[in-house]
Design goal:
The protein has two domains: about 140 residues, Serine Threonine Protein Phosphatase 5, Tetratricopeptide repeat (Alpha Horseshoe), CATH 1.25.40; about 80 residues. Helix content is about 75%, strand content about 0%.
Length: about 220
């Protein structure tokens, strides 16, 4: 799972910041992640603090890419101490969760993601954390827990991802009918020809094949 927010999710963070502060800023199409996260600091005019947070977040990402658990833990502690409440802190916990997941340490990964749910008031971060916790539950074979985590209410931008995960959870508990419904809902939102669309369509067609095989054996 990619631990960075998608371009669309980053854009939502920018739009929310603009709305809250009543400012108009022309942002370039290729705005960097550090620039997005740094916006919240510009309100206070503390550019130096934003630069320090951005630098530390860069160190965090490097430690995660290099699978350096101890180093990442040290950096995360510094992030919590120096930049509590910032988007950099939240994203750092998402990155730490990825590192734990790569190490198959699902319990500690969930702890990081639950921190995001508790500390972030940004809907985008919360949705990302929810779907990743649900994915972990599926890996652990806790399919109902995954469905409970996903819930029913979800912004349209996240609908496809949530429905795909729901479909996988339903498959896990043997509910092929609801899995089929979830995959079909996801396909209505996904772009035909994309990897996500083709993979989800394959899952849906596999359910059809299983049903046909069962009918032929009857």
């Amino acid at each position: 799972m990619n631990d960075n927010l998608t371009d669309q999710q980053q854009a939502e963070i920018v739009k929310k910041w603009l709305k809250d502060n009543g400012l108009f800023i022309i942002a370039s199409f290729g705005i960097a992640i550090s620039g997005v996260f740094g916006l919240q600091y510009y309100q206070e005019g503390n550019l130096k603090q934003a630069e320090n947070a951005s630098r530390l977040y860069g160190e965090m990402e490097f430690a995660v890419r290099q699978q350096r658990l101890s180093q990442a833990q040290t950096i995360l502690q510094q992030m919590d101490n120096d930049f509590s409440g910032s988007a950099y802190q939240i994203q750092s916990h998402l990155s730490m969760a990825k590192l734990y997941m790569d190490d198959l340490d699902y319990d500690n990964a969930i702890i990081q993601l639950e921190f995001v749910l508790e500390q972030s008031d940004d809907e985008n971060f919360s949705m990302v954390a929810r779907q990743r916790i649900a994915r972990i539950y599926i890996e652990k074979g806790e399919f109902q827990a995954a469905l409970d985590m996903l819930g029913e209410e979800v912004p349209e931008a996240f609908r496809a991802q949530f429905e795909i995960i729901k479909g996988d959870a339903y498959i896990g508990i043997g509910d092929q009918a609801n899995a089929k419904i979830a995959y079909e809902i996801a396909l209505e939102t996904l772009t035909p020809g994309s990897f996500a669309y083709d993979f989800t369509k394959m899952k849906s067609e596999q359910i059809n094949q299983v049903n046909e095989d069962q009918d032929n054996q009857s």
